[in-house]
Amino acid sequence: MRTLEVTKLRDLTGPGHTDAYGVGGTDLGAAVLAPDGRLVAVFGDTFERAGVGGPGWRSPVILFGDPSTLADGLVWTGSGGSARDYADQVVEYHHGSRVGGRLFGLVGGLKVGTVLPTDMITIGDTIYLHVMVCQALGTVHWTEIHRSTDNGVTWEPTEAWWWGHHLDGHFQMLTWELGPDGYVYALTTGFQRDKGLLLHRVPADRLLDTQAWEGWGFEGDTAGGSWAWGRTPTPVLPGAFGELSLRRVGDEWWLAAFDAGRYRIDLVPLPDGPTTNLHTAERLPVVAGCGWGDEDHGCGRVAQLYGGYILPGSTPDEIHLVVSQWNTATNWPYRAMHFRARVRG
User: Fold this and answer.
1) Are 112 and 133 in contact (CB under 8 A)?
2) Spatial distance between the Cα atoms of 186 and 145, rounded to a whole number of angstroms
3) CA distance 234 to 250
4) What's the rounded Cα separation, in Å, for the pair 255 and 278?
5) CA-CA distance, 41 to 122, in Å (whole number)?
6) Can you give the residue ranges of the DUF4185 domain (predicted)?
7) Could you tell me which of 269, 280, 170, 272 has the C-alpha nearest to residue 215?
8) Could you give the C-alpha distances from 101 to 26, 89, 106, 110, 241, in angstroms and in order?
9) pLDDT tens digits along 311-340
10) Record: fold of 3-19+113-344
11) How far, CA to CA in Å, does 335 sit from each of 17, 23, 43, 248, 280?
């Protein structure tokens, strides 16, 4: 049986950490390596002041990091967009605007409150970003894929998108990873933190072809049924999940998942790859939620936690995570933090 030794290395965002890029309050922080070797991290609703609200509301934003600094706490080196000293919004839209008309054939359009990132993936010389187009937190109109061919500095929309009610709302929050067989594997769930996980795959060279995506589904009874690709996806793990991070760490597959039902972030080794039986897979709690008076970041207790993204440079013995925290009563802390989990046994 494996155990974890968990350490908080540092705050990643907020005063003293991201002021140079106009980032006071922000969250999320899914990350990949760019083709040029830089670490690229994407964040959600971002404000110039520490907290939620005020000037400079934009989402998503990009920060670049130096992967060689991982051991002592990730250090930022720049930001995405046109300004070197300001992390611009990298998806073009206006908060509170309406879209529709010719775009989706809608009369009056849909109100877009914010666009939130779920995950990125690097394939060849291109980084792909999956986002949720939301009216409000938990209300997803549709999801779509954007891409960058300049190492994450600028982004453009692609033709790939899905309605928010696709697969009964289980295809909103997404995490994905490229396998050695040339397929991209994706785990998805809803944004309401009340749904289980579905598994999908798509050939990497057809990532933007929504018809090429296929589900991992179960047919038959419990005793004589079977799993196979090309079926309507069946939940591979029931529950109430939020943010997800599926990654190949060294030669191993790992999943980090915010289990909202258990109020904690787990690490899950996947010895059989993405199709590992998640019902029986070992689950290693990394960070546990708690009340504000019971916090102890040194022991992995964090109030109002979420997120949990595996950072590039992690190894099977030492996995680095980005964990978010938002005090919804006072709107501060509202930040991302760097935790390290050393795997024992």
Assistant:
1) yes
2) 13
3) 29
4) 10
5) 12
6) 14-340
7) 170
8) 32, 24, 5, 10, 34
9) 999 999 999 999 999 999 999 999 999 999
10) Tachylectin-2; Chain A (2.115.10)
11) 10, 10, 10, 26, 33
Q: How far apart are CA 65 and CA 236, in angstroms?
A: 34
Q: Which amino acid is at 148?
A: S
Sole residue written with tokens 């690709």: 229
314 residue type, one letter: S
Q: What is the pLDDT of residues 198-232, one digit of tens each?
A: 999 999 999 999 999 999 999 998 778 999 999 99
pLDDT digits (tens, 9 = 90+) for 129-181: 999 999 999 999 999 999 999 999 999 999 999 999 999 999 999 999 999 99
Give the position of tokens 């666009």: 115
CA distance 126 to 149: 5
What's the one-letter identity of residue 119? D
Query: Scanning the structure block, which residue is given the tokens 């590039």?
Result: 312
Q: What angle do CA 79, 82, 85 make, to 5 degrees?
A: 45
Q: Is the predicted pLDDT of residue 99 greater than 90, yes or no?
A: no
Closest to 241 measured CA to CA, from 218, 275, 266: 266
Name the phi and psi angles at 154, rounded to 5. -125, 155
What percent of the chain has pLDDT above 70? 97
DSSP-derived letter for residue 19 is: G
Determine contact, residues 233/215, Cβ cutoff 8 Å.
yes
